[in-house]
Amino acid sequence: MRASARRRAAAMAAAGLLFCSMAGCGAPPAPAATPAPEPSAHLDLPAKAWWGGPAYYAQFRKAADSGWSSPSFFPLAVFAGKPDQARALKQIGITTYLGVEHDGSPISSVTSTGMTVLAQLAEWSPAEIGDDARVVGWNLSDECEMGYSGCGDDEQTQLATQRSYAAQARSREDGRLLQANFGNGVLGSYWSTTTMADHLSLVDLSSVDKYAYTSPHVGELIMDSPAWPAGKNPASSFAYGWVQRQMDGFSSVAGSKPNWVLVETGKPYLSEAGSSSISPQELRGAVWNAIISGASGIAYFQHSNDPSCGNYSLVDCAQTRDAVAQLNRQITDLAPVLNSPPVQWTVGEGLQATVRSQGGYVYVMAMTDGGTGQRTLSLPAGLRGNTVEVMGENRTLEVHDAHFSDSFDNEYSYHIYRIVI
Hints:
This protein is of the alpha/beta class.
């Protein structure tokens, strides 16, 4: 390069530096740091109808004494568990037996592990239960509204029988809550169409089972329900949230009592054509759709007749056991959030979500309403956070004008978002 050319280049460079120093065109500014959470901060939004969280259980002495009223407790149960599997089930995060196989083992074989129990009224006597502090309640019946548990063939007889079970348990005055499980009555189509609210008024805690992923027959029953949304696929995670919302509607004040949703972990004793085992991805989606829809606990139906694995799928099937252990850890870690009141906020079109605040953060737990693809999510105005943490996925998303976008690859995909208030 000639000397004159070098002098011209140097002059141009100097002029450029002078211009940038005046116009501010240097290196792009660093993104604003994520502010620290203020633990007392909360969302100033109206609360949704809610059963009240763990404080609800303080009215039941045995439940309160066993830790059910703690914000860190979220019930994760096994349905009709085998006593000698209690330690193995506890290791994967199970907290409670919703019914115990009455195989001659004492109830202490379960409760001595720290597990809590809802004992079957028809199978366990007061003498067998005694004053065991960790037997927190009585399971009155299983699908009484369908005629099971000795409840009879017609709707009024079934209700009268359930009333007699409740009266028997209440008369013991032993500080234990009353619980019952329901099935087809949730559909509003044929079974107990006028008495489901009466059934729920008799108990302190309910649960519901409809194994939509694995049973084509269950799918047909769901689609026959007058409450099922037209065009929705029942063999989906959406169905597990739908049964929760249906159960909420049976309470005298919608959503005012806790309800658990049962989710199968194998092939739940099915022999019909097209029946199958649930996959780990479907299982996770079913559980989270139920929780997003308001379930206050999850109960796993582990009995399975899939020949590729054992009868007790949470113990015998390594893939299922590992998936549920991971899922239970995630739920337990989030228990203080799940035990905080949900607020009224519309997250976005084509989405199901629950919004909570806890410890200075907003939590948004979201799934689609059955579709897949990109969705835009709306946040309440005024949040200090400028990025959203996608919990458990090692990634963050930028917030622009109180909105952010994310992808849901499958109908069972879910994301848990956290942002500073």
